[in-house]
Amino acid sequence: MRISHRVVAAAQRGDGPAREQVAEGYLPLVHNVVGRALNGHPDVEDVVQETMLLVLRDLPGLRQPQNIRAWVLTIAMRQIHAHRERAAAAAHVAVLPTVPGPAADFEELAILRLRLTGERRQVAEASRWLDDEDRGVLALWWQEAAGELDRGEVAAALDTTTAYAAVRIQRMRAQLDRCRMLVAALEARTRCPELDATIAGWDERPGPLWRKRIDRHLRECQKCPEEARGGIAVEQLLVGCALVPIPTATAGGALRGTEGTGGTESTGGTNGGGGAESAGGAAGSGAGTAGRSGVKALVASAAAVAVVVGGVFAYSSRSELEVTASVAPSVIASPAVTSASPAPSPSKAKPKAVVTPSQSSTTTGCGGEGRASRWASWPMPSVKTASYRKLANGTVRDQVTCLEWQGTPAPGVYTFAEAKAYCAKLGGGGWHLPTRVELMSIVDVSRSGPAIDTKAFPGTPARFFWTSTPWAVTKTPLRAWIINFYEGLASNGAFQTGEFNARCVRSAGGSGRPGYRVAAGQVTDPETGLTWQRATSKEMTAAQATAYCDALELGGGAWRLPTLRELATTVDDSRVAPAIDTGAFPDTLKKGWYWTSDRSEPEPDRRWALNYDDGYTNYRDISAGYARCVR
């Protein structure tokens, strides 16, 4: 984000709204550079906070407002360096922790929130293996490659010339390419046996010693997979990967514990070409401001606004972005039902729903007797057939699936275990955290921000919500499925220690497997009432897939391309590569996009698709896929 010279000049004179605009504009960039340079170190919030405090404090002394962005980045890089020196002095063993704790590291946030896939994700993973100095260079160059900075600003932030900045970037890229090969080799489905012997005893934490050992093996080995020896140029991969939206901890609490920080250091700036500039001096130099407490309040206000700004960044025309702006972590609410999310009263009679012709014969009503204790024992609604009824106790009944939902989400955010515990303790009995297929049933991809019927579910934030479905891959740290109610995307990228929103559901059950019936090239799911084409089509565009299903002649009946929610019912969450019952669907591709009839509301020219690698969904940068028709 670029701030006009007029706004900067007004901010220097002490104009409150202008100062707030400056803080709001540069906080996302500072967060991204600091976060990536320190890779989500627990002190990232403090370093971001210190940087912004110094920026606002010393702004009146900036002599060349046109160079404000380079000046801000110079302060950020100095604070990063100062943090590393403090950490070294305190004899911390690892300045850049690589095993995520309650909050994921920065690269995990990038993978999750920008929805990086393929080689883009590999670059983010590889950056964890870089040395401290290279991580700082990468933090700036990533923003240059994404179009947020120019080379002169990168050079200024590194306090060097443009020519030498190019040298440092080239050195970093060479190391990053080696690390990409390392990541590819470690992630290979059939790993080299000699590599397994090399990493015996490795604790799976990236570090310089293991990087050298693995790199030595890759240089000498003739058996490691060929994909570990090449790849798309990093510049091409990073184009369009803009700012990671500010996470809750930084945005909501950016100014926690700030008393006494940042007030004694005099910061410098640049003229855009490497020259030093006095930045103003004393903490009280901001004429017209309310002192340090005013600065803190200003940055706090900007942090709150920047969450929204982050969403604007993420849902611009850039192609690889996905945003989640969670609210601040909070203590689990009392199991007692609140007025915002009341539990059903046992004394209330459960209303009957009118059974529409689109419903399966297995669902005879919504009084409980029609719900078998099986997985997806109801028809998956399309946008046209979705129907909700608000009950007197504040809950919402889905008249198609017979699932009963909290009318408003659970208060606060929770870890995976906390979210399950919260739902289990709701009054009235029978409440649980929804499975992935259950939560998908209320996603409405014809809407966005949020992707849900807002009349039935008012107040739903456009954020990620937990499902109770763990990822089938059980390597640590464990992950679970989440669904983004900005546009409806399903992701398995959430560590179970992360914190996301939750909405509880009440139903007769959420387990079991579909009892498929296979005959004459068709697979019927009696639980959903859908009949599927058993085979996979050849590769084609989305438009061709629509025409293909419309023209399909197989056992009679009108075939069509499925909706995203319908296709999601075929995913088997206990499997990967492919995540589907291979007895019923034997030719399903391990990694291949299957088209749906749903268009993306944020980007209407793109079509939703599902990948059976593990069942994740997306609509970005998918130009070819396959069809599995339904009727």
From TrEMBL:
Residues 394-506, 522-631 form the Lcl C-terminal domain. Residues 252-290, 336-374 are annotated as: Disordered. Residues 336-355 have a biased composition (Low complexity). It comes from the Bacteria. SUPFAM superfamilies: Sigma2 domain of RNA polymerase sigma factors. Residues 259-290 have a biased composition (Gly residues). Residues 24-87 form the RNA polymerase sigma-70 region domain. PANTHER family: LIPOPROTEIN (PTHR35812). This is DUF1566 domain-containing protein. It comes from Actinoplanes subglobosus.
